[in-house]
Design goal:
Low-confidence stretches: none
CATH architecture: Alpha-Beta Barrel
CATH superfamily: Alanine racemase
Number of helices: 9
Bound molecules: pyridoxal-5'-phosphate
Strand content: 15-25%
Radius of gyration: 17 Å
Largest sheet: 8 strands, parallel
Strand order of the largest sheet: 7-6-5-4-3-2-1-8
Helix content: 40-55%
Distance between the termini: 25 Å
Shape: globular
Order of helices and strands: HEHEHEHEHEHEHEHEH
Structural class: alpha/beta
């Protein structure tokens, strides 16, 4: 697959181990038959944005692959998200984390998740501001059924990938700062950043998960 080769090259350019970078194949709006083809071709992690849309697909395809929730998650969908997804990239506040924890207790699950950071301050973007992330992680450390394993961000849209680089650097620095705090029981290693237009730059700056849709499935049709 072209995208895997490009990921590999970007990792090697910066002396990183390509095996440590996960490709989340974003399948929102993509129909079942094409998702099945992708799985046949070797895809093991799928990313979806909407609980409602994902539910049908996950019921059909099952958990032979991992399903990651990458879109904004409303508190009233937490229950379904906990049931359906293997990983949640979009924890954007303490109340959502608490609700997921509560639902996960009921299901006897432990939910793996990331804190979504809004680095640009754009009102149209979800996520919490950098200053609040440390608080969130301290708080979640006391919850038994959700763990925050890293950070996720979505920079503003640019047509030049280089322009996204400062955001990727800032997310990495924020992660490093949290690691230095040495919060007990917390390992904040993951960096979910980079999409079709800029995943190579994100990998150069330390991404451990890239979320790629268009470069694999082509333009989305809504
Ligand atoms: C849709 C989406 C992606 C994938 O975007 P592409 O440009 O198609 O690769 C990645 N992350 C999030 C949060 C998305 O909503």
């Amino acid at each position: 697959m072209r995208v895997l080769e490009r990921m590999d090259l970007a990792a090697r350019r910066t002396g990183r181990d390509p095996g440590k970078i996960k490709l989340i194949v974003v399948s929102k709006t993509v129909e079942l038959a094409r998702i099945r083809e992708a799985i046949k071709a070797g895809v093991t992690i799928l990313g979806e944005n909407y609980v409602q849309e994902a539910r049908g697909k996950i019921e059909e395809i099952g958990h032979g692959v991992q399903w990651h929730m990458i879109g904004h998650l409303q508190k009233n969908k937490a229950k379904h998200a906990v049931t359906l997804f293997d990983y949640i990239h979009s924890i954007d506040g303490i109340t959502l984390a608490q609700e997921i924890d509560r639902r996960a207790v009921q299901k006897g699950k432990r939910v793996r998740a990331l804190g979504e950071v809004n680095l640009s301050g754009e009102a149209s973007k979800f996520g919490i501001v950098s200053e609040a992330v440390v608080d969130l992680i301290h708080h979640v450390a006391s919850l038994k059924h959700i763990s925050i394993e890293g950070l996720m961000t979505m920079p503003p849209y640019f047509d030049e990938p280089e322009k996204a680089r400062p955001y990727f650097i800032r997310l990495r620095e924020l992660r490093d700062r949290i690691q230095k705090e040495g919060i007990e029981g917390v390992r904040v290693d993951e960096l979910s950043m980079g999409m079709s237009g800029d995943f190579e730059v994100a990998i150069e700056e330390g991404a451990t998960m890239v979320r790629v849709g268009t470069a694999i499935f082509g333009e989305r049709r809504y």
